[in-house]
Amino acid sequence: MVARWFTEEGGEEEFRLLGTRCTACSSVSFPREDAFCRNPACGGGDQTEVPLSKRGRVWSYTDCRYRPPAPYVFDPDVPWRPYTLVAVELEAERMVVLGRAAPGVTPGDLSVGTEVEVVPGVLDEGDGTGPATWHWRPVEAW
């Protein structure tokens, strides 16, 4: 699990990505940045943790059908499965967040502008672990 990138309690309804907001300029960062403001026009301010919007709109998406190259290491006994990568625009935060589509969501289920919501996810659905990452799921179809 990626520490402090998302809420860890409350189930799917309460699941949210966590970012930071600069107290000087109100810029939001994700992944979180606790040490400084990423806005180059800002002189800096303290960073406070903020939950990001649960819903956004598909900005772009792609069908990933190849194994990433080295240095990624794969277990040769585990079959490679294609997945859908989604870039989601969060209007209130004025940012785009990448993530995998929820299991079962294919590029055919998406289009630019589709409303999606963030849900807890695991990197390997077969290993039985709890949330380790996040996924994006279309709101209306599910």
Distance from first to last alpha carbon:
25 Å
CATH level 1 name of one domain: Mainly Beta
The residue fraction in helices comes out at under 10%
How many beta-strand runs?
A: 8
CATH topology descriptor of one domain:
OB fold (Dihydrolipoamide Acetyltransferase, E2P)
What is the number of helical segments per DSSP (H or I, 4+ residues)?
1
- What Rg is obtained from the alpha carbons, in whole angstroms? 16 Å
Beta content: 35-45%
User: Unreliable runs, pLDDT <50, ≥5 residues?
Assistant: none
Order of helices and strands: HEEEEEEEE
CATH architecture of one domain: Beta Barrel
Q: Describe the main β-sheet briefly.
A: 5 strands, mixed, barrel
Strand order in the largest sheet: 4-5-6-8-7
Q: What would the average pLDDT be, to the nearest integer?
A: 86
What structural category do the secondary elements indicate? Answer: mainly beta
What would you note in describing this structure?
With 142 residues, the chain is mainly beta. It has one helix at 11-14; strands at residues 18-22, 28-29, 47-51, 55-64, 83-90, 95-101, 115-121, 133-138. Strand 5 (83-90) and strand 6 form a beta hairpin. The protein is built from one helix and eight strands, in the order H-E-E-E-E-E-E-E-E. It has a domain at 54-142: OB fold (Dihydrolipoamide Acetyltransferase, E2P) (Beta Barrel). The two termini are 25 Å apart. The model has no long low-confidence stretch (mean pLDDT 86).
